[in-house]
Design goal:
This protein is an alpha+beta fold and 443 residues long. The chain is 19% helix and 26% strand. The chain folds into two domains: 240 residues, P-loop containing nucleotide triphosphate hydrolases (Rossmann fold); 160 residues, Jelly Rolls. The strands form five sheets. Strands 5-6-7-4-8-9-3-11-10 form a nine-stranded mixed sheet, with helices on both faces. Strands 12-13-16-22-17-20 form a six-stranded antiparallel sheet, with no helix packed on it. A hairpin with a 4-residue loop joins strand 5 and strand 6. Bound molecules: adenosine-5'-triphosphate and magnesium ion (MG).
Length: 443
């Protein structure tokens, strides 16, 4: 399908030079890729100002041209104010095609009968209103403004066509925002450079990330635009916007977290240091408990100085839900010990299942592959004592662990790769291991 849409609305195959072009992707390789892409789920994301919104609007013209009255689209944004901006841009393009806009329904009707509705979804529960609807195209603008993917998944269920139109989901987004982490985990982490099709393990549906860069956009003064952006946000945010860099931990609670700086080799915690425990109820993981020590005076360890007043988390404990693994199946060069404090779980240990209940104590020698999976009917709490560094863990492939979604698909020593397709809930396993000494003993 071509990429140039003529003002006659007659389709991209017409190329009369005297006709006004309503919209064209020509000159923008990312928009061209979007128009040519037939994958079910597309994330058109990255740097700001690359032409993502225009790309969505142009993609709809192409879809409408092909499927006419059977093309039914829904374009969503988080808030009404944001939506108005997109509607305004759609007026500039679609009016040239002779399409009619109905203000009350916020709906464009093309001359061939294709319909595109605009709506906003301020609350996640608003997604329920669309139950039972059928769309052939679902567009979500700035998907990172959705803190959780739950409403998006609900809406995806509306993609179906009784006329056999191939349906598709198209979303745009920039780094940052409340949904940064889940968007990154779903679309960026599996193939950070993009343009590689990923197959969803559960549904078998395909998705792809098409990166959009501001330098792709010849319709704006790129240098002036970059200058304006620099004045509009924090240094990290602006550089993420300019480069489409999703690796920044924007909006995360610890946006300064850096494993190289914040993880230290185990050391003996001096007896006089004050210690305390913290406890946090979670939604995806039932709870998390942390054991902490407060550095009394500047303290040298592992060639570094921990400043006075710095907190050292030397032990942690995460609850598990029945059927869910606590982390990815792994091994490490140091030993660990596990004590089941309550509930039931399964320890997959060197490729074998070991059912455990309260007060079972297991010693895991160095190098033994293992993972815990919650069992029984309620949460399970396991006290895990050990020490290891972030860069010392190996994640092998294991069929038994895969049964519980605990195995990686490709062996790796890189935790970021191991957790790239980890479940998309907000909860993640602890940034194991956190610093401290198991030898110091708990108090
Ligand atoms: N193919 C095109 N034809 C005409 N104008 C375009 C085209 N692509 C982008 N533009 C213009 O470039 C500007 C930036 O594009 P757009 O708003 O689509 O970028 P964006 O990636 O959505 O930006 P943001 O990240 O801020 O949402 C807009 O004024 C838009 O109309
Ligand atoms: Mg936009």
């Amino acid at each position: 399908m071509g990429e140039e849409i003529l003002a006659t609305g007659a389709g991209a195959e017409q190329h009369a030079v005297d006709q006004q072009v309503a919209w064209s992707a020509r000159g923008n390789p990312a928009q061209m890729a979007l128009l040519e892409c037939s994958v079910f789920e597309v994330f058109f994301g990255g740097a700001r100002g690359g032409g993502k919104t225009d790309g969505m609007l142009g993609e709809w013209i192409q879809h409408a041209d092909i499927y006419g009255e059977h093309a039914i689209g829904l374009m969503l944004r988080r808030t009404r104010t944001e939506l108005i901006e997109t509607i305004e841009r759609s007026r500039a393009i679609y009016s040239l095609l002779g399409w009619k806009y109905n203000e009350t329904d916020k709906m464009w009707r093309a001359t061939n009968g294709a319909r595109l509705r605009f709506a906003y979804l301020e609350r996640d529960a608003d997604a329920d209103q669309y139950q039972g609807h059928s769309y052939t195209r679902l567009y979500v603008e700035e998907i990172g403004t959705f803190p959780s993917p739950a409403p998006i998944f609900k809406l995806m269920a509306t993609l179906r066509s009784s006329a056999g139109v191939p349906v598709g989901f198209r979303a745009t987004g920039n780094p940052g925002g409340p949904g940064h982490q889940w968007v990154k985990a779903r679309y960026i982490d599996p193939a950070p450079l993009g343009n590689r099709i990923i197959r969803d393990e559960q549904t078998g549906l395909k998705r792809v990330f098409i990166p959009s860069k501001v330098d792709n956009n010849r319709h704006i003064d790129v240098e002036a635009y970059k200058q304006n952006l620099r004045a509009s946000g924090s240094k990290e945010l602006v550089s993420a916007w300019l480069d489409g860099d999703w690796s920044v931990t924007l909006g995360a609670f610890f946006d300064c977290w850096d494993s190289k700086r914040h993880v230290v080799r185990p050391f003996e915690v001096p007896a006089e240091w004050m210690r305390f425990r913290s406890m946090d109820w979670g939604s995806a993981s039932p709870f998390s408990v942390g054991w902490w020590a407060v550095v009394q005076d500047d303290f040298e360890t592992d060639g570094r100085v921990l400043p006075r007043g710095c907190l050292v988390r030397y032990r942690e404990w995460y609850g598990m839900k029945p059927g869910q693994p606590n982390c990815r199946y792994h091994s490490q060069p140091v030993q660990e010990d596990f004590l089941v404090l309550f509930g039931e779980c399964i320890l997959i240990h060197d490729g074998e299942e070991l059912p455990l209940c309260q007060w079972d104590l297991v010693h895991c020698p160095p190098g033994v592959e293992h993972v815990f999976v919650g069992a029984g009917t309620g949460p399970c709490g396991v006290l895990m004592i050990g020490s290891r560094r972030h860069d010392e863990v190996h994640y092998p492939v294991n069929e038994l662990a895969a049964k519980y979604d605990a195995s990686v698909k490709v062996p790796t020593d890189d935790p970021a790769e191991a957790y790239a397709d980890w479940r998309t809930e907000e909860w993640r396993p602890a940034a194991n291991p956190l610093p401290g000494s198991s030898a110091a003993g708990g108090r």
